[in-house]
Amino acid sequence: MIEFNGTNALYWSRLSSRKTYGAILEEIAPEYPNLMVLVADVAASAGLTVFSQKFPSQFLNVGIAEQNMIGVAAGLAKARKCVFAASFAPFASMRCYEMIRNYLGYMNLNVKVVGLASGLSMGVGGNTHYGLEDLAITKMIPNLTVVSPADCTETAKAILALTDYKGPAYLRLTGVAGNPAVYKEDYTFELGKGIVLREGKDIAIIATGTMVYESIRASRVLQRKNIDCTIVDMHTIKPLDIKLLDQLFASHKLIVTVEEHSIIGGLGSAVAEHKTGIVNTPKQIMIGLPDTFGKAGDYPWLLAQYGLTAKAIAEKIEKEWMTIEKGGN
Amino acid sequence: MNIRKHEKPERLKKMANAVRCDILRMTLKAGKQGGHIGGAFSCAEILAVLYGAVMNVTPENAEAQERDRFILSKGHSAVALYSALYENGFLTEDELNTFEKDGSLFQTHCIENHKCGIEISSGSLGVGLSVGVGMALAGQRENAGYRVFVLLGNGECNEGCIWEAGMLAGQLGLDHLIAIVDNNQMQLDGESSNIIALNQLDCMFSAMGWNVIQTDGHDVAGLVQAFSRILQNGKPTVIIADTIKGKGCSLTEKKAEFHHAVISQEQYNDAMKELQND
Q1: Chain A residues within 8 A (CB-CB) of chain B?
Q2: With an 8 Å Cβ cutoff, are A78 and B131 in contact?
Q3: Given a cut of 70, is residue A23 above it in pLDDT?
Q4: Range A60-66, long-range pairs (CB < 8 A, 24+ positions)
Q5: What is the mean pLDDT of chain B?
Q6: Which fold has domain A6-174?
Q7: What is the pLDDT, as a whole number, of residue B1?
Q8: In the prediction, which pLDDT does B7 show?
Q9: How do the pLDDT tens digits run along chain B, 278 residues long?
Q10: Among candidate residues B74, B70, B90, the one with its CA nearest the CA of residue B178
Q11: Residues in chain B whose beta carbon is closer than 8 A to a beta carbon of chain A?
């Protein structure tokens, strides 16, 4: 039984989301004899070294072969296993994309593909190792649920929810060791249901992954300037919580989406795709990564470069808000 | 390996011939949609032997846990699989006749359908062996005893994923996994020797830790013999079945243009005459 409290939140944060992944699977393995955990030579990176020793019958390292990993996962799921299969995000989502589409989406198999260290968190690793497009491409596949937790506690919540959910999913893990915690106590997490973390009247900031925390901090900056923001943790990109979105559109003057992902195809696009069919909705601005391969560097430096810090997010929103206030929308 | 050795070669030969007749009939009925005749004809005996003498799978146990699994990795030969399933009572004639009709479950490339004995959706080449590895691995860990048979094309072996799966199967010692290569030496663009020759498939599988058995893929007695020689010795097995693309009638044999073709009534009549005289 996993406990959700401040102590564990801190512990998991120190581990990083990808090592929290391994730690949680290790906790739940005995309760789920049908669980099978596959890695493509990333056991240590995914925090699964102990798991591999403690539960060898529920573990397999397929080697550096992501395409085969998805096929093997499909075969195991056919034999009634619940399979988690992980690699670094670009390899887990792109190298084997067609296998995910044909075997997991098309045949609706119970496999959770896990993209580790997504976004820019691989830092000096450079563009080959960044996960900038994974939300875009995975959310296009029918039957696939796409989840992007805000922090390590939510990573734990998402793993538990996905273990009980029978179907294919992509779990996108962002951030590094020491990433701040959004959640420090137990709360209700439900796939497909966004979480309103703060209620405001002017602007609705809809964020996912690491950008939830930065958005909360940005909202504090804005609050001091009497700009009142709602903050939503949109942890499930697909199915998107359109009921919540409709409420946000009806009660705010500006919609802002924030994500550590390309501005093409991610959360911002998903929100815009829904919004475009509804009349008289507020303007939306999308904060995310530009459509470019940028330079590599340390993770915090990268976030700053791309304006994905609380300060930069607040500035961008404030500028937009001033235009709206002046009636210049 | 435990197989039904008592099955008479004549019966299996007849089944293979019936499979070819069904393939031809369905291709004619499909009209302008045509059919993948070449690769379907080349695996007729392989399918007849698998369903007629080797696999423990029947319409009655098609969804039972203990059944043997068959994966058609070369999914474009679905028309051959439908025919073999029809000849063995998994499909009705009415179902077979919906081949390539709008909205049918029996299209050019097969769609997962457990009731009818179709284990997976396939069509994109190179992944059936991976799925077979997953199924065989589950069986190995649970001591389930079922066997997994995967039919590959030699052209399909151009795909890297085949080798990823092959290496892993060797590493894991999946001796309930049997791959059969329908080695007709041709692919969409013509003769494999001009594209990717792969004329040392035996050495390649052997190097990955597989048992390798080579046989004539059109000799039913030879195929039965090959399956009976499979040892469950901690290694997966590949049967490299040398075949002829389009085997069965002069119209189609070794003709690259019959990889996928639309046939006329006249071609059908001539080809059918040849098949029936066999």
Answers
A1: 36, 57, 60, 62-63, 65, 67-68, 70-81, 98-99, 102-103, 106-107
A2: yes
A3: yes
A4: A60/A36, A60/B137, A60/B172, A62/A38, A62/B164, A62/B168, A63/B164, A63/B167, A63/B168, A63/B171, A64/A40, A65/A40, A65/B161, A65/B164, A65/B167, A65/B168, A66/A40, A66/A91, A66/A92, A66/A95, A66/A96
A5: 96
A6: Rossmann fold (3.40.50)
A7: 83
A8: 85
A9: 888 888 899 999 999 999 999 999 999 999 999 999 999 999 999 999 999 999 999 999 999 999 999 999 999 999 999 999 999 999 999 999 999 999 999 999 999 999 999 999 999 999 999 999 999 999 999 999 999 999 999 999 999 999 999 999 999 999 999 999 999 999 999 999 999 999 899 999 999 999 999 999 999 999 999 999 999 899 999 999 999 999 999 999 999 999 999 999 999 999 999 998 87
A10: B70
A11: 112, 119-121, 123-124, 126-139, 141-142, 144, 160-161, 164-165, 167-168, 171-172
The confidence score (pLDDT) of residue A75 equals 98
Closest to B134 (Cβ–Cβ): which among A73, A102, A106? Answer: A73
Matching residue, tokens 């007695």: B221
pLDDT in tens, A34-81: 999 999 999 999 999 999 999 999 999 999 999 999 999 999 999 999
Contact (CB<8Å) B134/A102: no
Asked if A91 and A69 touch (Cβ cutoff 8 Å), the reply is no
Which CATH number, 2.40.150.20, 3.30.360.20, 3.40.50.920, 3.20.20.70, labels domain A195-325? 3.40.50.920
Contact B127 A78 (CB under 8 A): no
Express each pLDDT in A239-296 by its tens digit.
999 999 999 999 999 999 999 999 999 999 999 999 999 999 999 999 999 999 999 9
Tell which of B164, B176, B208 to mutate to test the A interface (max A CBs under 10 Å): B164
ipTM of the complex: 0.94
Question: Which residue spans of chain A are classified as CATH 3.40.50.970?
Answer: 6-174
Q: Count CB pairs under 8 A between chains A and B.
A: 92
Q: What is the pLDDT of residue A328?
A: 54
pLDDT at A313 over 90: yes
In order of their start, the domains of chain B are: 9-276 (3.40.50.970)
> Per this entry, what is the length of chain A?
329
Looking at chain A, which residues constitute the CATH 3.40.50.920 domain(s)?
A: 195-325
Instruction: Chain A: give the shortest CA distance to residue B134, in Å.
Output: 4
Beta-strand runs (E) in chain B: 69-72, 148-153, 177-183, 186-187, 190-191, 211-216, 237-242
Burial class (CB in 10 A: 0-12, 13-18, 19+), B212: middle
C-beta atoms of B130 and A68 within 8 A? yes
Element (H, E) at B188: none
Distances (CA, A) of B202 to A135, A272, B85, B215, B224: 42, 54, 29, 11, 19
b/e A251-284 (16+ beta carbons within 10 angstroms → b): ebebbbbbbbbbbebbbbbbbeebbeeeeebbeb
Q: Which chain A residue shows the shortest CA-CA distance from B124?
A: A102
